[in-house]
Write a structure and sequence with these properties.
The chain is α/β, with parallel strands linked by helices. 40% of the residues lie in helices and 14% in strands. Strand 3, helix 1 and strand 4 form a beta-alpha-beta unit. The longest helix is centred in the N-terminal third of the chain and has 18 residues.
């Protein structure tokens, strides 16, 4: 049975701009300042290279630059706080001076988030949905930051080892609802919350990720903008029998389907290609 179309969520308000999802979808560009991320590990580990790439993605049409200093690939080991801050702080500080789009910090640590927000970031992208650090919500509130709450089983080190759901979509829905309620109870404004069903984070490569893509409308019922990140992930690689650097066409297809089914923001490595796919998906959705 065909899923119903989503109604567009209320706008998200940043410091100097508002994202109006009734007009179009938005693109988050991935900027990993790490030596070991699954797709572009070491490519932008050098701060100057990271800054150049962030500027390039902004020029290509990225609406958000998501900076991360700790790999969240399956099996990844945690990074010490000081090391994570050392990686991301100079990049965010410089990018915030040079580009006119919101910068996101991809972290589960409140102290890292605060240093990033001091440096010019406006979004906390927390894959733990405020579970790892009890001070994360307070950090978001004190800076009036936008927060992304993502579903994940366990931690990056363990998430693909014991995958099991009573009901995949209902379980994710219930988790996200509980985390939204908790964030609001701790003072995060409703128009500062984005949700992410966590494709690839404790989901089976063969089935779960595809089911989520087909049923994104379910998460629209939560009333928050939905972010989806499929870029170059293993389920695309397995389906296409493609190495990481040959998954961008699959990423564009999956992201366009996500937009048509209700995603408001897509997180990608190849911004230039995704702008084209998103424009077509938006035209169909709004026809």
């Amino acid at each position: 049975m065909k899923e119903k179309n989503c109604s567009f969520p209320a706008p998200v308000v940043f410091r100097h701009r508002t994202f109006d999802f009734s007009k179009r979808s938005y693109i988050m560009g991935v900027l990993n300042v790490t030596p070991d991320s699954f797709s572009d590990g070491a490519s932008y580990y050098d701060p100057d290279a990271a800054i150049r790439h962030g500027m390039e993605m902004a020029e290509q049409g990225a609406d958000i630059i998501d900076v991360g200093g700790e790999s969240t690939r399956p099996g990844a080991d945690p990074v010490a706080l000081d090391e994570e801050i050392k990686r991301i702080e100079p990049v965010i500080r410089e990018l915030s001076k040079r580009i006119d789009v919101p910068i996101s910090i991809d972290t589960t640590k409140a102290d890292t988030a605060k240093r990033a927000l001091d440096a010019g970031a406006e979004i906390i992208n927390d894959i733990s949905a405020l579970r790892v650090d009890s001070e994360m919500a307070a950090a978001a509130v004190s800076y009036d930051a936008v927060v992304v709450l993502m579903h994940m089983l366990g931690s990056p080190r363990t998430m693909q080892k014991d995958i099991g759901y009573e009901s995949l979509i209902n379980d994710i829905y219930s988790f996200l609802k509980e985390r939204i309620d908790l964030a609001v109870d701790r003072g995060v404004k409703q128009n500062k919350i984005i949700i992410d069903p966590g494709i690839g984070f404790g989901k089976s490569v063969e089935k779960d990720n595809f089911e989520i893509l087909g049923k994104i409308t379910r998460f629209c019922d939560l009333g928050q903008p939905v972010l989806v990140g499929v870029s170059r992930k293993a389920f695309i690689g397995k389906l296409l029998d493609a190495d990481i650097d040959a998954r961008d066409m699959g990423t564009a297809a999956a992201s366009a389907i996500a937009i048509h089914n209700g995603a408001n923001i897509v997180r990608v490595h190849n911004v230039e290609q995704m702008k084209i796919a998103a424009k077509v998906a938006d035209a169909v959705l709004r026809a």
